[in-house]
């Protein structure tokens, strides 16, 4: 009888381990509904839990790759995607040129949050990578080494 009980305990423990791991790889219903509501035309969503309170989903929308973040209650936190420098508003481009040299520019990331939108200019010079972050008015918010 002892061997059977140990065997059943082992199976139960393995089943619980698999179930817990599965739950950590899949967001809750609230989060999935919030994502589908915010991005109904998205495709190929791939979920990843960032920490206990944050889920990231990578997806395709209009042939571009996006990353968006939700908390465990389904509240949208932010969305990021790369944009072409040449498609930026003139105000942003002109202000950027006053901060740095265009030849150091690698990529531009649009970061949308509930209360603000930012442009992150990912730069690289002889001294290494760095970022310049500006708001939608072109005002520098942050300038830091990566």
Write the layout of secondary structure elements.
Elements: H1 2-25, H2 29-38, E1 43-51, E2 54-61, E3 64-71, E4 76-83, H3 90-99, E5 105-112, E6 117-125, E7 128-135, E8 140-145
Antiparallel strand pairs: 1-2, 2-3, 3-4, 4-5, 5-6, 6-7, 7-8
* N→C terminal distance: 61 Å
Shape: elongated
Instruction: Give the CATH topology.
Output: Nuclear Transport Factor 2, Chain: A
> Would you list the SSEs in sequence order as H and E?
HHEEEEHEEEE
Poorly predicted sequence stretches spanning 5 or more consecutive residues: 16-23
Number of helices: 3
Percent of residues in beta strands:
35-45%
Sheet with most strands: strand arrangement: 1-2-3-4-5-6-7-8
Major beta sheet, specifics? 8 strands, antiparallel
Structural class: alpha+beta
Indicate the CATH class. Answer: Alpha Beta
CATH architecture: Roll
Number of domains: 1
Rg for CA atoms: 22 Å
Average pLDDT value? 85
Number of strands: 8
Give the quaternary arrangement of the chains. Answer: single chain
Range of helix content? 25-40%
Tag the structure with descriptive keywords.
44% strand, 146 residues, alpha+beta, Nuclear Transport Factor 2, Chain: A
Description:
The protein has three helices and eight strands; from the N terminus they run ααββββαββββ. An eight-stranded antiparallel beta sheet has the order 1-2-3-4-5-6-7-8, with helices on one face. The protein has 146 residues and is α+β, with helices and mostly antiparallel strands. It has helices at residues 2-25, 29-38, 90-99, and strands at 43-51, 54-61, 64-71, 76-83, 105-112, 117-125, 128-135, 140-145. It starts with a helix and ends with a strand. It is elongated, with a radius of gyration of 22 Å. It has a single domain (2-145), classed as Nuclear Transport Factor 2, Chain: A, CATH 3.10.450. InterPro entries: PepSY-like.
């Amino acid at each position: 009888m002892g061997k059977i009980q140990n065997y059943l305990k082992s199976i139960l423990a393995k089943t619980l381990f698999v179930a817990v791991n599965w739950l950590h790889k899949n967001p809750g219903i609230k989060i999935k509904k919030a994502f589908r509501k915010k991005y109904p035309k998205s495709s190929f969503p791939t979920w990843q839990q960032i920490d206990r309170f944050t889920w990231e989903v990578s997806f395709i929308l209009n042939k571009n790759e996006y990353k968006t973040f939700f908390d465990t209650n389904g509240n949208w936190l932010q969305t990021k995607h790369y944009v072409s420098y040449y498609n930026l508003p003139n105000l942003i481009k002109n202000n950027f040129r006053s901060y740095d040299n265009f030849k150091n520019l690698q990529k531009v990331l649009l970061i949308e949050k509930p209360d603000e939108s930012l442009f992150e200019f990912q730069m690289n010079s002889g001294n290494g990578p760095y970022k310049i972050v500006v708001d939608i008015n072109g005002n520098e918010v942050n300038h830091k080494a990566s």
